[in-house]
Predict the 3D structure of the following.
Amino acid sequence: MTQALTFYIFSGISIVSALMVFSSSNPVKSVLWLVSVMVGVSGLFFNLSAPFVAMVQILVYAGAVVILFLFVVMIFDMKTEGKQVFSYGTFSSGLKVLFAGGFFGFVVFQIFFQIDRFGYLVPDKSAPQFEVRNLSKIIFTDYVFLFEVLGLLLLVIPIGTVALSRIRGGTHAE
Amino acid sequence: METIAPVLVLTLIVATFGSLLVYVSSILGPKQHYTKTKYMPYECGLPGTEADKTNVSVRYYLTAILFIVFDVEILFMYPWALTYKEFIAAGHGAYIFWVMFVFIALFLFGLVWEIKSKALEWD
Amino acid sequence: MGASAFEITVNLIKMIVIFLLMVQLVPILVWVERRGSAFIQNRFGPNRVGPLGLTQLLADAVKFLFKEEFRPPKSVAFMYYAAPVVALIPGALAFGSIPLSAPFSLEFGGEEFDFVFQSFQFGAGIVFVLAVSSLGAYALLFAGWGSGNKYSLMGALRASAQMISYELALGLSLVGILMIYGTFSFAEMVEAQQGPLRFVLFGKQIVVDFLPNWGIFYQPLGFILFFVATFAETNRAPFDLPEAEAELVAGYHTEYGGLKMLMFYIGEYGHMMVASGLLATFYFGGWDLPFGSAWIKDSVSSSFMYSMIMHLVFMGKVLLFLWIFIWVRWTLPRFRYDQLMDLGWKTMLPWALFNTILTAVVVVAFNSFGGAA
């Protein structure tokens, strides 16, 4: 019962905040609503008995990625609030509605017609609980090579970022 | 099984408490008198000259992106640290040590590179 | 939350009591801070209202209540009002997940119920605290953006950049502790720190009778790094750049007054309490009283009484750390912003990495070194 209740609360939070993310006119407000989306998603992970993933979700996404977005948004010109984001026009508006509706319809179609296929995803009470220890044992034995590659990848990211921010003639060249 | 419900309940309690404080102080305080200077953004008494929303330095962006990268690396060390003794007990002590040593060496290389490239300089 | 109505009620009461405990400690800490700073700077401090100025906090509360309600016209209403409320939440949630004492059991209707002395217990307690406190930056960003004042915004940006920079050193300094205890759970950590200092050295069990089995003896470097990083995380001096009054007026709460400003203070002191509680739990045995726990447990009849006494021990440790926080604030000068970032990235982070490797080497070399020996 509690699980169902928390599921609806957290999915409600995520959906409403996600709607607010793209309906706010101010990019900073959008980014701050994104935090709420992340918290909602984290709650959903928690509900799926994966507390570690839930907390990592908050630590990495809400605690780091969204702050990065915020800084990025603030680097740009913030003086004009409520900039017109979408262009007007009968043809392009019609196209937008068509695409948005088509995508929405596709998602709804997928959910309604494939829902009974997901029967095997219903949590099995006898299955072992998610354990960080098990996760660790898998990462550091079966996937140890990928783990080291990840370390290499994470090394490339900051180097690339710094190199990009140094490009001559760019907006932030030294 | 662990449930998130108590966290939600406590959040609700705290939020109610906080909102109540804000509300109570808003009804108990005296009414506002309008003066022009009072309604300006506070800047040590001088009239403001610049817009309040200025652009921020690109350094904040660099700091944030470096933070994400290092944060993810540190988060991978947590499960490793958790099972470190178990691996040792199973006789794989040297293996699990070198696995993380390579990872930390890459981490350290990135960090030293950042410091050398002066990406972390604030002035 | 529990299965029966009794369990749910007790858990709810516990939750509210722990939150109120945190809130009511704030005026006392404000008084200690003001008297303490006066003592350190050879002044009197508040001494007029009541004995030793103790009722100064009551007078302050009344004053705060009757302050004029004011919102700058350039501000964003929702964010401006939400920021102080949001500032309370991370501290309260994090404080709620730290075990403040030994678990106890109560009898009701012929049945025995077990309770933990904390609002909620998670297996991954440490990660929960880290995650929740990383959300603390948003209260500042709400306040900074919502106030419509550039000093507020700059203070908030500085605060968040500072918090994320020191979160790295903070998170990394805990890896050593995790290696030694091999658990994410606070309760298991405290359990492992009971009794005299003992470890296995080259297959030989060594017991040091005159020292408790506390984390600080295994992780002295980690303790220093964690301790310094918490100062930056709580935005306290010498790392109180977000509210450097010489350059930023009052930082992110420039446009706040009255109770709303007080709520930011509750948030800040809440973070201090969380930091002190974590320091006590990781490095100083949590609610463990060295050489006394077992004796108290035997001489006290009910587990509830025992829990209460151990809670006093824990609070004693927390108050000691809170006093150190205040002491440092009034002793050390503020850093410059580039010095602050240099310290975080170029000094603390490499040292934390060194601590991790050192602990790993020692643990693997001594085969099993530490608490669970």
